[in-house]
Design goal:
This protein has 310 residues and is mainly α. The protein is 64% helix and 0% strand. It has a single domain, classed as Rhopdopsin 7-helix transmembrane proteins (Up-down Bundle). Helix 3 runs antiparallel to helix 4, helix 5 packs antiparallel against helix 6 and helix 7 packs antiparallel against helix 8. It is globular.
Length: 310
């Protein structure tokens, strides 16, 4: 029976699920006989734990790794870099610094995603486990940055000031540090608090599940609710809201693709690729749409009226 916090089903049925790298190392050291099927041979094992479908590690059995998602991540890095540049040019726009920090956070997750899901590194190695832990921490911090942008938009404190940036940076660092530590403990079993699962095959970790699965959904929902209130009831505008609605749809579609269509695509492509590249494209499209939503409710120069919700 699957319990709350079990990753066993996710790691078995969801190709390229990066947090499974943490549990592979855990099982290899505490219950190696639990690694079967595609996971039995660590030199060629794909991302996942006993996955029903997965792209073999690059360089083994003719595999070139998860090439589709590698390309999607590379293109997303370029697109996000352009967004950061465009954001920096809008000197007078409200929330410019905070949005730029969010975009930088997203940019940092992309190379980590490329490495942790690209089937480059051998499963069970300390390097892959450590990078996957840092990736988990970066994702948790990214969604705080998203929610933090919505809180800044309320203008409870003035954007770009120490009163805004210090809490923003503190909670970003706190989410990153806490999640990274928990993920490292899952992989390396430093303590019994976040260490080996019981039973081992359940791949159980409630804190990791909350921080990598529940927290992003809560933060995203909070962001859209706050921005919806600001746009509809403070600014009394409707056009910008369509950008937020579209961004929300793109984000939901990315998650549906990742958890429902990912394996279907993997099976259909004979494990040459999986559906993670579509999820990456949709997530980046959602970030682009959020940028244009922010652009539509802010002004570019000091000579224009600047948006200050009251």
């Amino acid at each position: 029976m699957t319990r709350f916090g079990d990753f066993e089903t996710l790691c078995h049925r969801t190709p390229s699920y990066p947090w499974c790298n943490l549990f592979y190392r855990q099982l290899e050291h505490h219950a190696p006989l639990a690694l079967t099927g595609l996971s039995a041979d660590r030199s060629s094992a794909p991302v996942g734990v006993n996955p029903s479908c997965g792209t073999l590690r690059s360089g083994t059995h003719g595999s070139i790794g998860n090439v589709a998602n590698i390309v999607a991540c590379a293109l997303s890095i370029c697109v996000t870099g352009v967004l950061i540049w465009l954001c920096s040019r809008r000197k007078a726009a409200v929330g410019r610094i905070e949005l730029r920090l969010f975009l930088i956070a997203y940019l940092l997750t992309l190379p980590l995603q490329l490495v942790t899901t690209g089937a480059f590194l051998t499963q069970g190695t300390g390097a892959l486990a450590a990078l996957s832990a840092v990736h988990a921490g970066a994702v948790a911090a990214l969604f705080w940055a998203l929610l933090g942008n919505a809180l800044i938009a309320t203008q409870v404190v003035e954007d770009g000031t120490l009163a805004a940036l210090v809490p923003f940076g503190f909670f970003s660092a706190a989410f990153f540090a806490a999640t990274t530590y928990i993920a490292l403990d899952v992989a390396f079993s430093w303590t019994s608090v976040f260490g080996p699962s019981s039973p081992p095959a359940s791949l159980h970790s409630i804190p990791l599940f909350v921080l990598t699965s529940i927290w992003p959904l809560v933060a995203a929902l909070g962001y859209f609710l706050i921005m919806g209130y600001i746009v509809l009831f403070v600014l009394r505008e409707s056009r910008p809201m369509w950008f937020y609605v579209l961004a929300g749809i793109l984000f939901v579609l990315s998650q549906l693709d990742y958890f429902l269509l990912n394996k279907v695509i993997c099976d259909g492509a004979s494990a040459k690729i999986d559906g993670s590249f579509i999820a990456t494209i949709l997530e980046t499209a959602a970030v682009v749409t959020l940028f244009f939503a922010w652009k539509s409710i802010t002004e570019e120069s000091w000579d224009d009226d600047i948006y200050y919700p009251r």
